[in-house]
Amino acid sequence: MAKSLTLILTLLLLQGNAFAQQDEIRKSIYFDGGSYYIDEYQASDLAHWLDSIPNLLDKYEIQLISHTDPIGGRRYNEWLSHMRSEAVFQLLVERDIPEKMIHTKDWGLENPVYKNDTHLGMMKNRRVDVILRPVVF
After folding, report:
1. Dihedral angle computed from the Cα positions of residues 106, 107, 109 and 112, in that order, rounded to the nearest 10 degrees
2. Rounded CA separation 65/82 (Å)
3. Tens of pLDDT, residues 70-119
4. Structurally, how many domains does the chain consist of?
5. Is residue 13 over pLDDT 60?
6. Exposed, middle or buried, 54 (CB in 10 Å: 0-12/13-18/19+)?
7. pTM above 0.85, yes or no
8. Which domain holds residue 66?
9. pLDDT over 80 (residue 122)
10. How far apart are CA 121 and CA 50, in angstroms?
């Protein structure tokens, strides 16, 4: 009996975690190597995406998570990661999103999502993820 109760609780917890991740909305902004410049297409695309979210400011908090490839060393990539998240941060502030609703995490070359042993993997790691997380009351 205790074993099946544990199994049921585990399944419910896993289901709850999956549900929480489904509520998360995500968009990535990609950068050229060594750059923190956001081109007009991506800036416009981000603006349209934000405008498409009903009640954005009432329902979500925004997290910016920045990444780099490993080229250039740790210190350089920490700086570059910060500059990338700052560039996206400024775009959001220009769209009248209050600074207090935006949280950043700059990973630099740490914690890559994609493998950096291929050119494609490095290209995918040169990004800032804009993550909308539901506000829990």
Report:
1. -130
2. 10
3. 999 999 999 999 999 999 999 999 999 999 999 999 999 998 899 999 99
4. 1
5. no
6. exposed
7. no
8. 26-134
9. yes
10. 27
Report residue 136's pLDDT band, with 50, 70 and 90 as the boundaries.
Answer: confident
CATH number at residue 68: 3.30.1330.60
84 domain residue, yes or no: yes
* Residues in contact with 12: Cβ distance below 8 Å, sequence separation at least 6, in sequence order: none
What does residue 66 show for φ and ψ, rounded to 5 degrees? -105, 145
Tell me whether residue 50 is in a domain: yes
115, part of any domain: yes
Q: How far apart are CA 94 and CA 12, in angstroms?
A: 41
Residue 122 lies in a domain: yes
Concatenated DSSP letters of 57-93: HHHEEEEEEEE--STT-HHHHHHHHHHHHHHHHHHHH
**What does the block give as tokens for 67?**
């990444």
For residue 6, give both structure tokens: 């544990």
Q: Give the model confidence (pLDDT) of 30-61 as tens digits.
A: 999 999 999 999 999 999 999 999 999 999 99
